[in-house]
Amino acid sequence: MKTVAASLMLLLLLVSSSDYEAMLDCKAVTAYLTPCLTYLTGMVETPRAFCCKGARNIVFDASKSMENKKMACNCIKTLAYIVKPRPENAIDLSNKCRIHFPFKISPNIDCSR
């Protein structure tokens, strides 16, 4: 858990130069997904309600503009690279939270589309 916390702090430092004109920034995406890390890394079997709420917030905010969607995607890509989620949990987050997440939680996603 200390490694996950340290990774999040590193991510926040890396994204401190986010585009402030966007309604959504990487700090917000990271904060929204932080409650999901225990599920995404396999520490718990089911995402908690506050994880799903954060995921819903990302979906809602990312849907406001293509810029927000690309920014959220790139931030999640970086976060996935650092945290290394279990692929099956990353895929199943949408189903467990009953949302349609607009992109994969993966370090290999192409955010240009």
UniProtKB/TrEMBL annotation:
Function: Plant non-specific lipid-transfer proteins transfer phospholipids as well as galactolipids across membranes. May play a role in wax or cutin deposition in the cell walls of expanding epidermal cells and certain secretory tissues.
Coiled coil: none
Keywords: Disulfide bond, Lipid-binding, Signal, Transport
Gene3D superfamilies named among the record's database cross-references: Plant lipid-transfer and hydrophobic proteins (1.10.110.10)
GO molecular function, one term: lipid binding
Name of the protein: Non-specific lipid-transfer protein
Keyword Ligase belongs to the record: no
SUPFAM superfamilies listed in its UniProt record: Bifunctional inhibitor/lipid-transfer protein/seed storage 2S albumin
Pfam families linked: Tryp_alpha_amyl
Signal sequence coordinates: 1-17
Top-level taxonomy: Eukaryota, Viridiplantae, Streptophyta, Embryophyta, Tracheophyta
Family: Belongs to the plant LTP family.
Gene Ontology process terms (BP): lipid transport
Domain Bifunctional inhibitor/plant lipid transfer protein/seed storage helical: 26-111
Record carries keyword Signal: yes
